[in-house]
Amino acid sequence: QVRLVESGGGLVQAGGSLTLSCEVSGGDLEDRAMGWYRRAPGKERERVAAITWFGDEIDYGDFVKGRFTISRDNGKKTVFLRMNSLKPEDTAVYFCAAATGRHYYADFVLWGQGTQVTVSS
User: Fold this and answer.
1) Tens digit of pLDDT for each residue in 37-91?
2) Strand 10-13 and strand 115-120: pairing?
């Protein structure tokens, strides 16, 4: 059974950086766009970033404003989210997700368990 396993979350001070990783285990997810989402306490889930299968198109949430970078290594079946200049409002559980097709306009249907990111002020 294919699973998405996130890692790299933790506690960081405001202005710091973290890199999240999402590894595909138990199989392959070829030709799938991937994305990072987050859910903060009391808020709706929102998309942080998404990337097409070939990595040629990327979409970021407006709140990212150049601070985060999504990337992928299809050979290693891993997607990354590099987060710089973190703010307390970035505190959330971050989820990795896989879409049903190559582009991130497809539905995201497979989800990881999430990794907690906490940014202290």
Assistant:
1) 999 999 999 999 999 999 999 999 999 989 999 999 999 999 999 999 999 999 9
2) parallel
- Distances 86 to 51, 67, 89, 96, 105 between C-alpha atoms, Å: 21, 8, 8, 19, 27
Distance CA 3, CA 28 (A): 9
Angle at 89 (CA atoms; ends 52, 77), nearest 5 degrees: 25
- Identify which of 27, 45, 25 has the alpha carbon closest to the alpha carbon of residue 35: 45
* Tokens coding 5: 């396993």
User: In the chain, at which residue ranges do the beta strands (DSSP E only) sit?
Assistant: 3-7, 10-13, 18-25, 34-39, 46-51, 58-60, 68-73, 78-83, 92-99, 108-111, 115-120
Instruction: Give the integer Cα–Cα distance in Å for 89 and 81.
Output: 17
Quote the pLDDT of residue 65: 86
